[in-house]
Each structure stands twice: as structure tokens, then as C-alpha cells.
Amino acid sequence: MIEVKNIDKSFDGVQVLKNVSAVFENGKTNMIIGASGSGKTVLMKSIIGLHRIDNGKIEYDGRNLPDMRMSDIRLLRREVGMLFQGSALFDSLSVLENVMYPLEMFARTTRDEMEERARYCLKHVNLEEKSFKLPPSEISGGMQKRVAIARAIALQPKYLFCDEPNSGLDPKTSLIIDQLIHEITVEFDITTIINSHDMNSVMEIGEKIFFINKGVKAWEGSKEDIFHVDNQGLNDFVFASELYKKVKKANT
Amino acid sequence: MLLMKRVMVSPDRWRMFFRQFPKELEKLGLQSLPIVIIISIFIGAIMTIQTKLNTENPLLPAYSTGLVTRDTLLLEFSSTILCLILAGKIGSNIASEIGTMRITEQIDALEIMGVNSANYLILPKIVAFVVMMPFLVIFSMAVGLLGGYLVGMFSDVITTADYLLGIQYAFIPYYVFYSLVKSLVFAFLISSVAAYYGYYANGGALDVGKASTNAVVNSSILILFFNLLITNLMLN
After folding, report:
1. Assuming Cys at both sites, which of A81, B9, B35, B142 could form a disulfide with A157, CB separation 3.0 to 4.6 Å?
2. Which residues of chain A have pLDDT under 70?
3. pTM of the entire predicted model
4. Which residues neighbour B174 within 8 Å (Cβ) at sequence distance 6 or greater?
5. Mind listing the pLDDT tens digit for each residue in B27-74?
């Protein structure tokens, strides 16, 4: 479980996060949603420790990140997996080497065992053997995301962060990636935090949803509640598309 | 300084360092050999012709052309000028590679894995380039001298006998040592300055280009400054 308590974050005097508190539960897909520029990426990067917060606490199962020394943060990060918006695969390594990389850095096993684990992770995300030796630039965007997921879970993380996992993907592939993230979260009982502005993802796998608006947590709840909330900012976000306007109309 | 504090620590995994190290030796060192050969051979040849033209004096011995060519190559060209040229090639290579990794979040990915990204990415490059640079400098000296010899062989500017006598006459081994010391310092400057600009690049492709340009310009200025400093310390 990750607990965020009253965090503030400013850049050059501009406050981007204001007194944000949230509890991200393990075994669930926790989703941070909000419009572009609302502060959700800053919130995620602050939780991971890529941005140093001005005030507040970020507790990973009771361990407060802002109080930690860099060496302790590095140890904590070995329990963290992250799926980046652009996949962030290493260009110079093949697909298989990308997944083996965290194992080679931190696992205390033989190279054969590492390769076996990497192959298992790649097969778990439904990647075919023939793509294992290819460089990331030679596979599709959807496959790159799967490799990134495989790399993120290679060390069996306790916490998984996904930043816009569906960006640049077609609806069908988006659905596959969403389901994959959800399966992994449940299977390994991971605390998963997903940053998204894709309402289809929210409705597909969102279990606990946090709505960020202008740097403030404006709402939290379940996907079942999201259609019946009296929150102008959230309604503007959720019902921006004609499809969801029709869904709302049908529900009322 | 803060970046170097993160770079100059023991790697998380020596195995990974030793996997990266030969790749960097090849990329930064061996792949620089063609340009070193081309530039050195031409500069050696041109320097021989120009020295001969400027020393057309019956009072000066015939071998003085070889002597001047040799000392110029040893003292300045094969260390300083070559390093200024390599600052362009290697500096932009390092800055753009690391800068691209930064803007495509690959460095963030390393950090989130708990890897000391500065150490993992930069240390093998600095060590490899510092190790390779003296070899490149010695190679440049040899090839530059060969360029002058070829002028003697294929033209009537100077005889090969006079040239060979000149390059052996009053040879001071300390000049080679001085040149190698300079090259080690310059190699460190080129790789660390370029790594710094690449590592702290942000934005998009345009910013990687700017980082690359800044790396080349600033490392070149530092090379000139340290050249003056080291020359003053070692030759004055």
C-alpha cells in the first residue's frame, strides 16, 4: 500500500500539487485521472521520487520516501516497476536483454536462470519468441509496451506505476494492455498506480479512481460512482465525449 | 561536481561495467581511428611542406624541416589539435546519446530500477576514452610523421634522408610525456563535459542538439584553457 499525505509541489513558484492525499491499495488498479496539465504526472513522479516534494509524506508500507537517503531510495526502487508513456526501452539492447537488464543488475542468480525468468515474463505478456532478439525499434508500439511491462515485472515488484499506458495505441491493443496490467496486479498482489486520461481504461480496469483537477484531488471513488457525481470538473472530464454523454443520458 | 560525485563511485555491478567498457573502447576509441589517421597524415604532410617553405634559408640545416614538423606534432598537434577535433566527434556523440536517453525517459527508467544511472552510463565512457586517448595520440604522432615522409617520397620539397635525420635529431622524450599528460586531461574533459550536457538535457530533439553543441563548445574552451595551464606547468 502506498499512502500519500498532504503533499505539495511547486515549480519556480507555481504550485502544481496542492495538499494531495490518497491511499493506493495493493491488489487493486488505482487510477489517477485528469485532464492534460492537471498535475497527475507530477503526482506520479513525486510518488516515485523523481520529483522532490515541498511538503507532506509518501509512505510505501510505512516507509516515508522523503525521509530516506538516496541509497535507501535505490533499495526501495528495486521493489518498483514502471511502465513509461513511451516505453523507455533501451535502444542498444534487444527485447530479451531489456527484460534481463534489471535481473542482471540486481538478481543473485545465474545467467541461465535470468534468461529463463526474462523469457517467462515475455511469454506472460504474450510476446512471441521470434521477437526476443529484435531491437525495440523493430517492434510495434503495442509490443514495446508489452516488453516494458515484462521488464517492469521481471524483479517481481511490489509496486507498479504506469504512466499513460495506452498512449499511441489503437483501441484493441489498449484493451489488451489494460487487461494485462490488471491481471498482473491481481496475480502478484501488486500496488498498481495508473496515470490515464483514457475513460475506456478507467471503465475497463479502474478499481479505485482519483480525479486530479488543477493540482488538487477533486474526487475519489469507484468506476460505478463516476457517473453519478456532482462535481463539475469531473463531469466535464468524464462526459467530454459524445459516447459518455449518451451513457449518462441512458443511465438517467 | 555533483554529477561527478555520482559518477565516480564503485559500479552497482562490475559485470555490467566490464560489459559496457569494451563497447565504449570500440565506439570512442577504435571508431575514431579513421579520422585520426586521415587528419594526422594530411596535417603531417602539409606541415612539412609549409615548414620547408618558411625555412628556405641557407643558414638553416636541411634537416630542420623534419625537426620542426616532429616537434609541432609532438607538442601541439597530436595532443591539443587532435583533442579539439575529437571534442567535436566524441563530445557530440556522448552528449547526444545520453541526451536522447534522457528525453526518451530511459534514464528515468534506470533510476526507477534503482540503478545509479550517472555511474552506469558515464563512468565506462570516461574510463574508456581516457584509456584510449594516449594510444590515439601516439598513433597520430606516428601517422603525422609518416605524412611528412610521404612528402619526401613523392615530391621534391625535401629528401627523405633529410626528413628522417630531422625527425631523429635532438629528440626530447619528455615532449611525448608532456603530450600524453595533456591528452589524458583533455580526454577526461571531453567525456565528462559532454556527459554533463547530455545528462541534464531536457525537452525535445532540439534540446539534445543544443546540449551537443554546448558540449563541444565548452569542452573546446576548457581544452584551450588547460592547454595553457599544463604547458605553463610542464614546459615553462
Report:
1. A81
2. 241-245, 248-249, 251-252
3. 0.85
4. none
5. 999 999 999 999 999 999 999 999 998 888 888 888 899 999 999 999
Report the pLDDT value the prediction gives residue A242, as an integer from 0 to 100: 67
Domain A1-79+159-223 coded CATH 3.40.228.10? no
The pLDDT value recorded for residue A188 is 86
Calculate the alpha carbon distances from A182 to A111, A149, A173, A177 in Å: 30, 12, 14, 9
Count of A–B CB contacts within 8 Å? 55
pLDDT of residue B101: 94
Q: How far is B116 from chain A (nearest CA, A)?
A: 8
B7 within 8 A of B119, measured Cβ to Cβ: yes
Cell of B1: 561536481
Residues of A with CB under 8 A from a CB of B: 48, 50, 73-78, 80, 82, 84-86, 88-91, 101-102, 104-106, 155, 161
Type of residue found at A11: F
Alpha-carbon span A206 to B155, nearest angstrom: 81
**Which chain B residues are closer than 8 Å to A85 by Cβ?**
105
CA distance B215 to B209: 10
pLDDT at B62: 85
Domains of chain A: which residue ranges? 1-79+159-223, 87-156
CA distance A80 to A23: 17
CB nearest to A105's CB, from B13, B101, B111: B13
**Is B44:B146 a contact under the CB 8 Å cutoff?**
yes
Q: What is the pLDDT of residues B93-128, one digit of tens each?
A: 999 999 999 999 999 999 888 889 999 999 999 999
Total residues belonging to chain A: 252
What integer pLDDT is reported at residue A244 of this predicted model? 67
Please state, in angstroms and as integers, the Cα–Cα distance from residue B177 to each residue in B1, B132, B167, following that order.
28, 16, 17
- Parallel, antiparallel or unpaired: strands A159-163 and A80-83: parallel
Describe the crossing of helices B205-235 and B92-103 by its angle, rounded to 10 degrees. Answer: 140
Evaluate whether A193 touches A42 at the Cβ level (below 8 Å). no
Spatial neighbors of B102 by CB under 8 A, at least 6 apart, are B198, B199, B200, B201, B202
pLDDT of residue B193: 95
Distance CA A138, CA A91 (A): 10
pLDDT at residue B76, as a whole number? 92
